[in-house]
Amino acid sequence: MNPLEFFRLQTREEVLALYDRFPPVGAEEVDLAGAGGRVLAADVPAPEAVPSFPRASMDGYAVRARDTFGAGPAAPQYLEIKGEVPMAAAPPQAVGPGETLRLPTGAMLPAGADAVVMLEYTDEHPDGTLEVRRAVAPGENVLQPGEDVRRGEVLFAAGRRLLPQDLGLLAALGVARVQVFRRPRVAILSSGDEIVPLNASPGPGQVRDSNAYLAAAQVQEWGGLPFLQGIVPDDFAALKSALAAALKEADLVLVSGGSSVGARDLTLAAIQALPGAQVLVHGVAIRPGKPTILAAVGEKPLLGLPGHPASAAIVMEVLGRPLLERLSGLAPRPSWGGTVPALLSRNLAGATGREDWVRVRLRQEGDTLWADPVLGPSGLLSPLVKSHGLVMIPLGTEGLPRGEMVTVRLFGGGD
Amino acid sequence: MNPLEFFRLQTREEVLALYDRFPPVGAEEVDLAGAGGRVLAADVPAPEAVPSFPRASMDGYAVRARDTFGAGPAAPQYLEIKGEVPMAAAPPQAVGPGETLRLPTGAMLPAGADAVVMLEYTDEHPDGTLEVRRAVAPGENVLQPGEDVRRGEVLFAAGRRLLPQDLGLLAALGVARVQVFRRPRVAILSSGDEIVPLNASPGPGQVRDSNAYLAAAQVQEWGGLPFLQGIVPDDFAALKSALAAALKEADLVLVSGGSSVGARDLTLAAIQALPGAQVLVHGVAIRPGKPTILAAVGEKPLLGLPGHPASAAIVMEVLGRPLLERLSGLAPRPSWGGTVPALLSRNLAGATGREDWVRVRLRQEGDTLWADPVLGPSGLLSPLVKSHGLVMIPLGTEGLPRGEMVTVRLFGGGD
């Protein structure tokens, strides 16, 4: 019998809680131009205030507020228009008593002025006089220095993945280099006597090394640096030395295990024989994906993936990605994207004692988005390839009925 | 007055319809290991059938169907168990009359056998005899060669962005290299006398070159290869020669324009002076983003972005990304991801005569996800940085009421 059956299966939540023990990888400094998508390793304080000078927050006229005192529709005040402040340039002159300068939103408030009268409460007369029909208080319609960003304020906290607009703001503030976490290096080993390289012709019962390519592309998409360590035969010494070599180079080791029980036991034995190794998880309550292994070798994690390609892909989505994100230094964050609500198009039975991850294909029919379950053995990749994402049937439920509104977790974020 | 006012603003749909005239960039062949996220330039036919041999689709026993004829709960048939077919290995022997081999889902059907009896309709007796309590038809519980993928069938069509699982399937079939579109090379020019480099201290009215960094990170995220062409002063000859140089190297040129009307007119004049140039769009009915320019120079597109950083960022999301995807060869596809439904937390007025794109921040409150509009002038980046995505108020509507269910288009797909 399968020795895994006698080991208690751990739930997804239990596995994720173990990730805290693995520290994020170290930091490096990079140029802003190469920082898109990287994860900040240190808080970034604002080196300057934004705006650095007072700016108009409305289109209108720069005035001394006291000059507008008492102005109203029935009692307008009159100011002399001395010219215009161009956008993104210094004002041509200061505003003296009884004077005004036209200015657009965002332009620099001229010296002497302390408020802006909005366009709609004014009229320009042909003689160059401005009619002001509303009084303004000092500071009205003006963005004060530091009002948007205070100098020294934390712009972005460590753990944030930098978006394009973040780079724009950092560039505007003159931040040319940032401290980011290294991209985690991820070694990918394929184990199993039946695995042959991509360019080989598989004999009877042999399969090409597809899991390594699949996992490498996932690691890349999620911000890691994958490297393929090749195929290791089902041999204790070979497996142990390949794992030790991988752990020297990598921050995370993925072993795509042989699919037979014997091969799995061998992988487990090889892991346990590594100095400082501790097996933390040996079997998870997830379908597909039961024969998953998580071990710590010193401070480095090792994830043993199921041999069936679709199982390996789903375990990577559900357990591998959060592990990589932990090592990447990414702060826990609400996840709003990457999912879409859809109606389940048929009844789905759950897996007793396991959380069930079902592949679905989306289909638009009028206003309704249907999720069609794509069934098929986890040894085949094409059902996965035909799917757009996954639906989870929670542990301890009997299944989901046709017509149920489900949340589809999209592959590649749905792009 | 602004000369753009006299030009008819074009709607988003009108602009997108113009993209058909720009051909996708050329193709290149890459190793499968580097093909993740790339766009296929040619259909990929399956070089082999999947499975390439008959496989069990259930755990059970390989049999000759005729040997089970007449079997039922009250009248079991008995077969001799000759051993087991291991997963992913050749069967140890053929199945002769009256014989059977145990086999797991996915294993190769032994010669002689033509069906599989499911485990639950059998019992193994201590003497090595199998009791079969149900008859099977030939082919039952067997996946025939080519049933999953037929040889020569189109696995993936040109225009598909390759997902990790696609690489897995291609690897399984021995496809080592694929034809993909080149990544479009995107030149980014910043024009404007008021723009200073990142490492400079801006004088009064000057700003650092933030738009170029923002646009470069967007291009990178969307699969292009950005390169910064630097800052060009507001000078016709300098602008024209910089544009011509950029067009030689790039598949797409982005010009982040000066924000003053004079600077915009200069950019337009420089574009029009290029040999083979045709201005297609000069002003769009989108807020923010009105002063956007689209031109064709020969077969290459040139996109003139508004000078205000937040406007430039939003125009890139709404118009720049589809243009880049067109050049990338990406096939039009349903877009299910990258959005989330949320309740609008306050009334929003629309922009008369323009489609309005409003920045929003998401906030979870119990079971409700609120979209809080983040207002602020488009000259400031921090409101954009504080936002999680955009909500669109359609052209010709007065706005959206508080409590309305809106679709939030997430930055970075929500990841």
Please provide a written account of the structure.
2 copies of one chain form a homodimer. Chain A folds into 4 domains: 3-26 and 182-328, Molybdenum Cofactor Biosythetic Enzyme, Chain A; 27-48 and 157-181, Alpha-Beta Complex (Molybdopterin biosynthesis moea protein, domain 2); 55-143, Molybdopterin biosynthesis moeA protein, domain 3 (Beta Complex); 339-414, Beta Barrel (Beta-clip), CATH 2.40.340.10. Chain A has 7 helices and 28 strands. Chain A has helices at residues 12-17, 164-172, 210-221, 236-249, 261-272, 309-328, 382-386; strands at 27-31, 44-45, 55-56, 60-63, 77-84, 99-103, 115-118, 122-124, 129-132, 142-143, 154-156, 177-181, 185-191, 195-196, 207-208, 225-232, 252-256, 277-282, 286-287, 293-297, 300-305, 339-344, 348-349, 355-365, 368-373, 389-393, 399-400, 405-410. Chain A has a 6-stranded mixed beta sheet with strand order 7-4-6-5-9-8, with no helix packed on it. In chain A, strand 20 and strand 21 form a beta hairpin. In chain A, helix 3 runs parallel beside helix 6 and helix 4 (236-249) packs across helix 5. Mean pLDDT of chain A is 91; it is low at 1-5. At the A-B interface, helix 2, strand 15, helix 3, strand 22 and helix 7 of A face helix 2, strand 15, helix 3, strand 22 and helix 7 of B.
